[in-house]
Each structure stands twice: as C-alpha cells, then as structure tokens.
Amino acid sequence: MSVTKIAIISVAVAVGGFLIIKRLLSENMVSEKRKKIVSINVDEVNYDMLVSDIKNVYQNSATAYQGQRCKIQILNNIPTVKMYSILKNEGQSLSFKVEGNCISVVLFVNEEIEYVKFYSYKLMDKGLRDIFSSGRDIFEQEID
C-alpha cells in the first residue's frame, strides 16, 4: 500500500472517530438537558406557583449559581409554543405536547437555559392576566 493511501485511510479513520465522539457528546448533552424540562397540567395557573417552582430549583443548587447571572422568564402562550418547537428542533425528546392554554417558566443562568417548566391550564389568575394584558408575551425578573 502506498504512503498516500495509508495517509488517506488514517485521515478518514481520525475524522470518522471524531464524528462518532462528537455525536456521542451531543447525545449526552441532550440527555442532560432532558432532565431539566418538565410539564404539568393544572386547573389554575398563577404567578406565585410559577415563581415558587423556579425558586425551589434555584435554591436546590444555590451554591452552584452563586456569582452567576440568574433570571426567570415567564412566557405566555405564543412564546411557549415557540420555545417548545425550538427544544424539539434541538433534539429534545419531549413526551408531551403544547397546545391550547399553555404557559412556561424558564430559569436562565448566564443566558443559558437551565430549567423549563411547561404548564397546560384551564384558568389563568388575574395577576398573570394583568402582567400579559399590556401586550407583553414575556415577563422577565432577575434573581437576587
């Protein structure tokens, strides 16, 4: 076998190995992200419910988040559907559908999604309706 053929085969094996490792790493990253996405059905959704769920997640890892920029976003129906589509397109395996009345709450750490909880609901309390009545679809709050 010529030196050229050996070099070409070596490069092909190296590139193939790199692609396999890259695929395995991205599958592991996706499976890690899967653990951070939750869905729940509720009769009535309210601001305190959304914020307390995220604050519990935050407090469980407070030392890891110390010194990081953390914020909560509450997404109304349209951005929630878009968030769901984005996660599906990223390869997330989501065992639920987002349709009808839906809202989501997201914990961001340094502008990266850390946790998402989707809510399907029958009623939205007045406090949340007031937040979104001004035409805003996303409410954002920093975590101190």
Quick gist of this model?
The chain has 144 residues and is an alpha+beta fold. 49% of the residues lie in helices and 28% in strands. It folds into two domains: 1-35; 38-142, no CATH class.
**Shape call:** globular
Taking the sheet with the most strands, its summary is: 5 strands, mixed
Question: What percent of residues are in strands?
Answer: 25-35%
Number of domains: 2
Write down how many β-strands occur, each being a DSSP E stretch of 2 or more residues.
Answer: 5
Helix content: 40-55%
Strand order of the largest sheet: 1-4-3-2-5
Individual helix count: 5
CA radius of gyration is 21 Å
Contiguous runs where pLDDT drops below 50 for at least 5 residues: 10-35
